[in-house]
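re: the backbone from monday

yeah here it is again, tokenized this time
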């Protein structure tokens, strides 16, 4: 049985470890996913918005542009390093309608009915107790509010599934691994969880995206921008790290190269719009 608190403590360390890589690589790569999520959220000027699992602030900053000047966005994340990176960017760019806080998505430290909208971009599938996180999102939404979420779709439609296979022998035993990042791959799983958390109006759909990568090293940068994989890699001897890298490159060549030699990575994303 998974120890949720121990798992979250380890997740915090893992994301702290890779925070700068994530901010430098995946923030740019995931812009299309976040833009689509914001389109679905139908944010308006003046809204008060919560971004759950905000990372280094990609969706938070994008939402802040939509709701300004009177609106505001709070981003919360389990990784203190991610929060620090986001705060530094906000200060450097003079964005004054955002705030970032270190917080557990499963225990949101806000009163009920606090926000007009809640966002969660590619975060829910990482939580050990996603039902608790969904219930917390529902609790802090105001009457008439909306939550907009995204998660990875079916594993067979997401390039990451094949690319992480070489890491699997180096992962902890199954009871300690935590949730699969493809656990909400079937839309009915997410719909059932959302309704159990108190959302009565639940709409989901899946969209196919493609990330284009010019060089194989971009694949490696992407993988080491992900908390659990970065942590596994950091604990391996140099020789094993090199072998792992070559295995990943071979999978990328075999499955994702186009005739021009570039790499095209499919990413099916499930989007959900939830209303109380």
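seq for it, each position gets an aa:
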């Amino acid at each position: 049985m998974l120890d949720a608190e121990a798992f979250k403590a380890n997740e915090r360390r893992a994301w702290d470890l890779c925070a700068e890589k994530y901010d430098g690589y995946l923030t740019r790569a995931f812009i299309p996913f976040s833009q689509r999520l914001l389109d679905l959220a139908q944010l308006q000027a003046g809204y008060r918005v919560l971004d759950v699992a905000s990372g280094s602030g990609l969706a938070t900053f994008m939402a802040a542009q939509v709701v300004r000047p009177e609106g505001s966005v709070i981003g919360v994340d389990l990784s203190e390093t991610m929060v620090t990176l986001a705060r530094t960017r906000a200060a450097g760019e003079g964005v004054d309608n955002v705030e970032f806080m270190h917080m557990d998505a499963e225990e949101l430290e806000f009163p009920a009915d606090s926000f007009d909208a809640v966002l969660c971009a590619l975060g829910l599938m990482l939580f050990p107790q996603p039902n608790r996180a969904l219930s917390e999102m529902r609790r802090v939404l105001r009457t008439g509010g909306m939550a907009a979420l995204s998660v990875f779709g079916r594993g067979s439609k997401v390039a990451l599934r094949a690319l992480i296979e070489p890491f699997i022998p180096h992962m902890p035993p199954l009871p300690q691994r935590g949730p699969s990042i493809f656990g909400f791959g079937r839309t009915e799983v997410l719909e059932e969880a959302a309704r159990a958390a108190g959302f009565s109006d639940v709409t989901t759909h899946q969209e196919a995206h493609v990330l284009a990568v010019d060089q194989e090293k971009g694949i490696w940068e992407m993988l080491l921008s992900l908390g659990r994989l970065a942590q596994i890699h950091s604990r391996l001897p140099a020789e094993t790290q090199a072998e792992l890298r070559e295995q990943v490159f071979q999978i990328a060549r075999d499955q994702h190269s186009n005739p021009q030699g570039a790499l095209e990575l499919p990413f099916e994303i499930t989007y959900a719009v939830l209303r109380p």
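The chain has a mean pLDDT of 96. The CA atoms of residues 74 and 255 lie 39 Å apart.
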